[in-house]
Amino acid sequence: MQGIYLALFFLFWSLFNHPVYSLSYEEAVKLALANNKKIKAKLALLPIVEAEMIIAKYRPNPSLASAHELVRGGAIQPVQIALPIEIGKKRFYRKELAKKEIEKTKLEIEKEIWQTQIELRGLYSKSLVSKELVKLFKEKQKKLKRLSGEENNNQIELLVNANLIDEYEISLNSVNLSLKELLNVDIDQNLNLEDDLKDLVTKYKQKLNQINSLETIVDKRFDTLILEQELGIQSSLIKSYKAQRIPDLVLETGVSHPSLGDPFWGMYLGGGFEIPIFDRKQGEIKKAEAQLDLVKLEKASLRSHIGFEIKKAIFNFKTREKQLARFNKLLDLSSADSSFQEEYLKAKLDMWLAVQELEFALGVVL
Questions:
Q1: Is the pTM higher than 0.70?
Q2: How far is CA 333 from CA 198, 326, 328, in A?
Q3: Measured between alpha carbons, how far is 281 from 153 in angstroms, rounded to an integer?
């Protein structure tokens, strides 16, 4: 019986006592990049695409045959060897296409890593601020409970405050679950996140001071869209399809015995072409050309959009920084006022989200 009680004790202990895992943002990034399922899926795709290069290098296989004319005195050709020869740089264009597909996949992996860090920044900051808001309103609830018997107004405020606690706890729980899923950690793991907002804002202020022109930033962000690689792939596809229109040469040779009455053996040579009359890749070429035009249109429109997006992000970052600085001064002047503390925490979250917006706009993560 003692063994059963001991087992039950450890079971309940494991269910309700989870160790707290302290986690800085840098550690969270390492954990996310090492464990994130989306990144693993992209990495697993790379060997599949790299195999396309092996396939692209294939040459046509020779064929081996034998023939005998089924008539009196018919010729005998015991060995026939046919060798198809590709004409028109077909193999070269296949290799170029495979190379561009590999480059695109590698950039997609980098993009997934970048997007994971951007997503992590948002979840990390929301979790930090939501936790502080829950703590703030729980402390306020304790004060209200002490005063609850004195005035009816306190009772109303107590109920309103309890609802706010529930709302912030719902938000905190939702964010933490999303964060744990991104980090791929145990769902019951308790995370203790570290606040590095001040250092982060300083880093990005320095980064913005180093930027010489908007075009430089647009180019950097434009790389994350992988449109140049898509343009290259469609161009290579068109060249490859057009090369396939060129007839391939087939050389044939073998040993021949002209007839049963002829005692001499000899060699014969033959040749031919596979002429593309019906399948001339006209549909594939039209599709690739239309796709190429579409990518060019997207490139022109997105470049303009990115410029506006970057300007908006930089403005928001600078404005949010000023707002947060003002709230810091307000807190120094009225540290006991919980309403200012609530607004300060919201301003802090806005600053975090402004950093996230700036990282997305610039196409970089510091």
A1: yes
A2: 20, 11, 9
A3: 80
Q: How far is CA 100 from CA 51, 278, 290, 299, in A?
A: 13, 29, 19, 18
Beta-strand relationship, 190-193 and 20-23: parallel
Of residues 320, 365, 366, the one with CA closest to residue 118: 365
**Cβ-count burial 344-357 (b if 16+ within 10 Å, e if not):** bbebbbbbbbbbbb
Is there a contact between 345 and 129 (Cβ–Cβ < 8 Å)?
Answer: yes
Segments of the chain with pLDDT less than 70: 1-21, 73-74, 148-153, 212-213, 258-263, 334-339, 364-366
CB-neighbour burial class of residue 302 (10 A; exposed 0-12, middle 13-18, buried 19+) = middle
118/27 Cα distance (integer angstroms)? 15
In this structure, how many other beta carbons lie within 10 angstroms of the beta carbon of residue 135?
13
Question: pLDDT of 319-332, one tens digit each?
Answer: 999 998 888 887 77
Helix, strand, or coil (residue 186): coil
Confirm if 157 and 144 have CB atoms less than 8 A apart. yes
**CA–CA separation, 274 vs 270, rounded Å?**
14
DSSP 73: T
The residue written with tokens 């929301």 in the block is 126
Tokens representing residue 7 in the block: 């087992």
